[in-house]
Amino acid sequence: MAKLRLFFAFDLDDEFKEKLYKYQKSLDTDTFRPLKKENLHITLAFLGDIEEERISALSDILFYLDFPDKIILTAKKTIFFPSYKRPSAVAIEVGNPDKNIYIMEKALRKELAIDGFIVDGRKYRPHITVAYIRRGTAVSSDMKIPDFSHSGRFSPVSVSLISSQLAKGGSIFTTLCSRKFN
């Protein structure tokens, strides 16, 4: 029984991904390993290793989940993730003035639990990982990262179920199914 490393994610539009890609170029490549532009996303729920046979149930959840017409987001600040004390990545913290992202995340977790899926139990912190800290890099609390400056709002274009295959040089993401916002 084959297992896939799966997660649900908000897909970003190409224009916003281009802004993030330009920001990635400001990072020191000796210290940071930027994600590929096509892999930039906002994780909605990380599922971990799931049996391939259960993908259809996850697809059903995605298509029957109650979606808002649109989600309005803001890029708040650049952060070390998961924390400043033990960073493994550089991320852009995401704000959500209308709180729809949290409502949707909670509804998804509820549906996943009903169908017997176990989701990471940590508090949801919407963010966009833009780069990983290279192995062997000494990280200190005074390490500085450039700010990502983006005034204004943006909206995800869809939600996808994604398979992540760990590989040398970065993860390979494959979209298994996707649902666009209205």
Automatic annotation (TrEMBL):
Keywords: Hydrolase. A motif (HXTX 2) lies at residues 127-130. It catalyses: a 3'-end 2',3'-cyclophospho-ribonucleotide-RNA + H2O = a 3'-end 2'-phospho-ribonucleotide-RNA + H(+). Its EC number is 3.1.4.58. The active site is at residues 41, 127. It comes from the Bacteria. A motif (HXTX 1) lies at residues 41-44. Pfam families: LigT_PEase. Residues 12-87 form the Phosphoesterase HXTX domain. Hydrolyzes RNA 2',3'-cyclic phosphodiester to an RNA 2'-phosphomonoester. PANTHER family: RNA 2',3'-CYCLIC PHOSPHODIESTERASE. Belongs to the 2H phosphoesterase superfamily. ThpR family. This is RNA 2',3'-cyclic phosphodiesterase. The lineage of its organism: Bacteria, Pseudomonadati, Spirochaetota, Spirochaetia, Winmispirales. The gene is thpR.
